[in-house]
Amino acid sequence: MKLDDSSLQKFGFIKRETLGSINIDPLQTGGRLTEAAKQALVEWGDGYSVCDFCGGVLDQIKKPPIYDFVHKALPEFLDCDEARVTNGARESKFAVMHSIGKPGDWIVLDGLAHYSSYVAAERAGLNIKTVPHSGSPDYYLDPEGYATAIEEVTKESGKPPALALVTYPDGNYGNLPDARKIASVCHQYDVPLLLNGAYAVGRMPVSAKEIGADFIAGSGHKSMAASGPIGVLGVSEEYAPIVLRKSKHNKVKEVEFLGCTARGATVMTLIASFPDVVKRVRNWDQEVENARWFSARLEEMGFIQRGQKPHSHDLMFFEAPRFYEISEKVKKGRYFLYKDLKARNIHGIKSGLTKYFKLSTFGLGREKLEVVADSFEDILKKYEDI
């Protein structure tokens, strides 16, 4: 079909309306680019760009320093034996599941696992056993639930699961389960553990070895200030030969990553932001303090924070009974909150949500968080007669 000029008018440069807003979207707070990454995005944005310097293996490129990043800095940052960049945390998880498990094997997931963990397992042909959580209000995940799940799989299938996964923290409530205890439980049954740290790696200190995780997955665009999509994967020495195995047909290419993964602007923004990411992780205690202050402030207004208390992560889930009552009476209905926040230059709570919503306080600092909290209070006062 031939495209005429009129049909192309909707394309071209598209302005991002939310740019410059106070952003509380958990998907974006940890992925905001540093100034260095913004420069790298322009500098390395042409096609694959870094492939100009590739001799056949992406992570062996010495200049720009992809080799030093992947094989030296990243394993040290994750505290693991081997590391790779991938096209996202879900690709990291799939690479592990596909290489460690065989079609028909079982995998154990926590009850708050991200949908992509389920999809990755499904794509790898694996069956899923779920470790239940306690439900509202705290959604606690008992490490001993992994023992129960592993024993159930062993009884039903005749062998233990190929892999267990824990989400750290989960993407709904921001809960941080006792991953070290979960790893210990899994290893008692000789089951390796994959830590899904999409909202942890790049925000807070995480050590695969201290936890006892055999694999760790992270997200560059969610939590490491990269343009993405891009992820990172850490692997222990024991499982590296399996996950990082080479192709029989092209001996320099790693099978699970289809030969090459993130290249061009994605990996270069990840590298450009890395010094700032390392530094900001050291400030995690302040981030937790800010999150707890914000949660307490909202609860004073009648909001209810679900999940762990005291909270230990920037991602939080709130129930807002009063906002829901307002939404049932005002002309704008359930879209009133989004519009009122937008008028105050605040972005991140999805349009149409009033009764329940999640947000992130990461990287905003106390001054901007006060603006957000004051805005919630102002909106409540605006509709106090309704």
UniProtKB/TrEMBL annotation:
Which reactions are catalysed by this chain?
A: O-phospho-L-seryl-tRNA(Cys) + hydrogen sulfide + H(+) = L-cysteinyl-tRNA(Cys) + phosphate
Cross-referenced InterPro entries, in alphabetical order? PyrdxlP-dep_Trfase, PyrdxlP-dep_Trfase_major, PyrdxlP-dep_Trfase_small, Sep_Cys-tRNA_synth_arc, SepSecS/SepCysS
| Entry keyword Magnesium | no
Tagged with keyword Protein biosynthesis: yes
- Return the Gene3D superfamilies for the record: Aspartate Aminotransferase, domain 1, Type I PLP-dependent aspartate aminotransferase-like (Major domain)
UniProtKB keywords: Aminoacyl-tRNA synthetase, Ligase, Protein biosynthesis, Pyridoxal phosphate, Transferase
Q: Where does pyridoxal 5'-phosphate bind?
A: A89, R90, N196, S219, G220, H221
Recall the GO molecular function terms of this protein's record: aminoacyl-tRNA ligase activity; Sep-tRNA:Cys-tRNA synthase activity
Q: Name one Pfam family in it.
A: SepSecS
- EC numbers, comma separated: 2.5.1.73
Cofactor names: pyridoxal 5'-phosphate
Say which domain of life the source belongs to: Archaea
Q: Which residues carry this modification: N6-(pyridoxal phosphate)lysine?
A: K222
Tell me a GO biological process for this protein.
translation
Q: What does this protein do?
A: Converts O-phospho-L-seryl-tRNA(Cys) (Sep-tRNA(Cys)) to L-cysteinyl-tRNA(Cys) (Cys-tRNA(Cys)).
Q: Which family does it belong to?
A: Belongs to the SepCysS family.
State whether it acts alone or in a complex, and with which partners, per the record: Homodimer. Interacts with SepRS.
By its UniProt entry, which PANTHER family does this protein fall under? Answer: CYSTEINE DESULFURASE (PTHR43586), O-PHOSPHO-L-SERYL-TRNA:CYS-TRNA SYNTHASE (PTHR43586:SF3)
Protein known as: O-phospho-L-seryl-tRNA:Cys-tRNA synthase
